[in-house]
TrEMBL record, chains A, B:
PROSITE patterns: HTH_MARR_2
UniProt xrefs under InterPro entries: ArsR-like_HTH, HTH_MarR-typ, MarR/SlyA-like, Transc_reg_Sar_Rot_HTH, WH-like_DNA-bd_sf, WH_DNA-bd_sf
Keyword terms of this UniProt record: Cytoplasm, DNA-binding, Transcription, Transcription regulation
Biological source species: Secundilactobacillus pentosiphilus
Annotated protein name in UniProt: MarR family transcriptional regulator
Domain of life: Bacteria
Domain named HTH marR-type: residues: 10-140
SUPFAM superfamilies reported in the protein's UniProt record: Winged helix' DNA-binding domain
Length: 154, 154
DNA sequence: CAGGGATTAATCGTGTGCAACTAAATTGCT
DNA sequence: AGCAATTTAGTTGCACACGATTAATCCCTG
């Protein structure tokens, strides 16, 4: 079928995600300014505060980022003293990313700062669990469709 | 206050938006590949299919993008024959962005392609209106807080 | 144990995003 | 009219994001 009017709702949904993601990114950027961290750098550290060391590939599959994004990001985190990067001895293809002592010491300070900033918000009318659940449903649907059946290429 | 454990839910919410936005972006990238359009280019055209011409500033306030992003994006759209950019006669500070005839002709084809791709998805368990509404609530909250009271800088 | 396929990071190129700055034009105020 | 504040695009610099490619290493099978 496919009529010729745009799917307002789907476009709106995508645009809402797009805009919200940018706003959240900006919010975290502000919150993390004292530490000179970007949001992608922050979630990288979050993952490492859970498990360190990790290989680049492990990090990438947690964060859905490939080495083309991670390698330069990790180099910046290394330069600023948060992590070290070291080729694995067992398997020299892999690079182990390890938190520095400085990163371990700063952890609580970063958490506290983020929490302080989040305290300034009141998501009163929002049902967190349900919202996150719906977003996950949308993502699952998108995963199912990506790359598939889109081969009516011109 | 501000304990030292991360706010799992808020971080999860931000990460969900971040991930969903990337997935949607990717989905539209696939859908629009026949036209060599990116998602930001597509929403720019969407806005212009509603109202053309628009100034760069008007486009920017619709899309929440500044000239630093739009100027190069518009130059690419111009080079590919979708739009023209012309300094306004009345106010030479402004640049009028106008759809080309080619863009007007392609409109229905683009809509049809996007709709075909969206047809491949079934957002069964998802309440669209409610989801978009909740996202808007989150964005409103983020707008209210941005830049405000975040001045306990280190 | 040699050699080909698979895996892993790194690299390269393109395209956003955005803060900060610049340059030009307009507006407003006296 | 004349000049300062404002508005508007463009430019620059940095940081993602990702597809495509490359180089090194590992593994597996004959």
């Amino acid at each position: 079928m496919s009529n010729t009017t745009p799917r307002r709702l789907d476009d709106q949904l995508c645009f809402a995600f797009y805009s919200a993601s940018k706003k959240f990114n900006h919010f975290y950027q502000d919150a993390l300014r004292p530490f000179h961290l970007t949001y992608p750098q922050y979630i990288t550290l979050l993952a490492l505060w859970e498990t360190s060391p990790m290989t680049v590939r492990e990090l990438g599959s947690h964060l859905n980022l490939d080495s083309g994004t991670l390698t330069p990001l990790l180099k910046r985190l290394e330069k600023q003293g948060w992590i070290t990067r070291k080729r694995s001895d067992q398997d020299e293809r892999q690079v182990n990313v390890t938190l520095t002592d400085h990163a371990l010491e700063k952890r609580d300070e970063v958490y506290a700062r983020v929490n302080d900033c989040i305290d300034l918000m009141s998501f009163d009318g929002v049902d967190y669990d349900q919202l996150i659940d719906q977003i996950h449903q949308v993502m699952t649907e998108l995963d199912g469709i990506s790359h598939k059946d889109l081969i009516h290429e011109s």
